[in-house]
Amino acid sequence: MRPPEPCLVLDGSDRVGVRVGVLRAGRWSGEGVAAEGALEATFACAETALRHAGLTLADIRSFVVCVGPGSILGIRVAALAARAWATLEPRPIFVWESLAAVAHAALLAGQPRPFVVALESRLKRWNTLVVPAAGAFEPPTELEPEQVRALGLPVVTTAESASVIFPGAQGVTTPWAALPTLFATTDLLRAEAKPEALNPAATFATWDGERHRGPA
Q1: Which of the following CATH numbers is that of domain 7-97+175-210: 3.40.50.261, 3.30.70.20, 3.90.78.10, 3.30.420.40?
Q2: Tens-place pLDDT, residues 170-188
Q3: What is this structure's pTM?
Q4: Where are the beta strands (DSSP E) in the chain?
């Protein structure tokens, strides 16, 4: 699925840092990257990306947001920004999931099936997605390291620490550079008017914040 362009793409899912890019004519025409947290950097990165692309927010025809799993705060800031901008002038919002992006990028680079994508989660657990020998990806889940090893599959990961925990793990770069191609050639994107962060838990339930609200 190719989103309407120019498209503003926001990724606050990393444990540290934010990326924002302007997608136009199937490539990045402007990018903003920061090592600071999402609250401090998301809007500044958007301004930088738009400036490098020679555009303003009014020129943007759609928004794309990474919904994780990853930093809940970073994802929510990016999602709320896209929702706010889309409210000012109705424009579609699309989302992608980080595990699936790594899987598609690995396949694009020639990684043979089957394999499992493993990204760091919380409490020494790992967010995982199995790419079977054929067919659709399996649903993502959160596993203990020994459960990942018990799968008996090659591990593909962007985490530098993975090689210690999973000997022989295939380290890959983050799929950001490949996103324009992945958006256009795979089923990575889906339309989502009100994106929310995926909760990095075994059920991968959508996180809505209800449990964190006090009584009315």
Answers
A1: 3.30.420.40
A2: 999 999 999 999 999 999 9
A3: 0.90
A4: 7-11, 18-24, 27-34, 62-66, 93-96, 115-120, 126-131, 141-143, 155-157, 170-171, 190-191
